[in-house]
Amino acid sequence: MSRLTGKTALVTGAARGIGRAIAERLAADGARVAVNYSRSAAAAEEVARRIGGIALRADVSQKHEVLEMFDRTEAAFGGLDIVVNNAGIALMGPLGDFSDEDFERVFAVNTRGVFYCCREAARRLRDGGRIVNISTGATVGGTAGGGVYCASKAAVEQFTRALARELAPRRITVNTVSPGFTETDMFHALPHLVELAPKLTPLGRAGRPEEIAAVVARLCTEDAAWITGQNIQAGGGLTMV
Question: Would the pTM count as exceeding 0.90?
């Protein structure tokens, strides 16, 4: 029997990259998975078809869409055990040049979106459930041009710490996974990151989405029932960018 047989999971931002790898890994481990997307319908539907899950469109920054997403997940699966908050955007630039509109956009998705999903997860997860929030290793040391992005993710790490204590009586664990350099479409679109990754990462390369997914999947099993409120650095030893 697979480690997550009988469990149901919702993964936000799961049409591509790290989110897709997480959805695929949870399904491979036996879970039934709802694949959330905002714009990439065809990609999400392909992932859902391949893993035997369902694709659900929702902009996580919109409360009513989050509520509907959770409703549809519960209707399809009869309940919910795992929520992985992966949806996010990365807009970079010097703080002094950052526009109000871009600030609002980053926090709307990365922070308010995770807040909405964590709140619904707290209300709806079955006892013994799992919440995993995806942050970034860049919150440890900060990075020039990443102040707003890192701030939005640092808030998510605080959600994790508080919620872990609040949900502990129900045996629901809440953890953060913080990837380092990871080979996604965004990574390959930024040549300077491709060049920096092997120089700054002790293991000498960028990570693969499947490697991040493996960490997330482990946190969703009974083997990790004693781990909660933690920020797991999944960056090949990278501690500062």
Answer: yes
